[in-house]
């Protein structure tokens, strides 16, 4: 039996919307933009499985959770690719190429593939710890995913020789539940407290402007009504002034 190690205390260290299985399993699964695949991955023997939507903070959380458990030696990337973010390709690029001096993932095609809270050391740890990255991007067939997981388990090399590495994700790991709901909805900003006084002032100003507009519409409507009435009376008088002399002349012969 392959040697195992205890993961970091409280693992997974980055809170999020994922499913956790046996922490001694050698396989971790990223289901990208798909839902409904995670429990099947756990049932097949994965240590952890969850979606990941963004190519920055989302991937940072994946890294944090994987390197804090030395038992994870295989990474399966599956589920539908996230349009725009191209998260699956970015994760592969991170594993294969690492990051540059600016924190950008080398060869990544996503919109903003930058690691702000994960440096070269954690990335290097991920590259060393993970012995194989299985590309099942855009695959949602749970049978194929389960087979891939079981195949990895059959090749389990045992725990990585180094102890768990725990990294602090500023605004990420500690505040995952507040900021983005974990691996599923990364990058959504927190809700600010409303400024009640400003809102009241705004409402009062809007009420005033609406009142002015209502008054102007009423005045314009009244003027228009009076104008139409005046035109009607004028037309009647004009017709009478013309018709009466003609009628008298006709009657008098």
Automatic annotation (TrEMBL):
Keyword Glycoprotein: no
Record organism: Methanococcus maripaludis (Methanococcus deltae)
Cofactor, how bound (note): Binds 1 5-hydroxybenzimidazolylcobamide group.
Protein name, per record: Tetrahydromethanopterin S-methyltransferase subunit A
Residue ranges occupied by any Tetrahydromethanopterin S-methyltransferase F subunit domain in the UniProt entry: 187-248
Cofactor(s) needed: 5-hydroxybenzimidazolylcob(I)amide
Subunit comment: The complex is composed of 8 subunits; MtrA, MtrB, MtrC, MtrD, MtrE, MtrF, MtrG and MtrH.
Function (record text): Part of a complex that catalyzes the formation of methyl-coenzyme M and tetrahydromethanopterin from coenzyme M and methyl-tetrahydromethanopterin. This is an energy-conserving, sodium-ion translocating step.
Keyword Ribonucleoprotein: no
Binding positions (5-hydroxybenzimidazolylcob(I)amide): 85
Pfam entry (one): MtrA
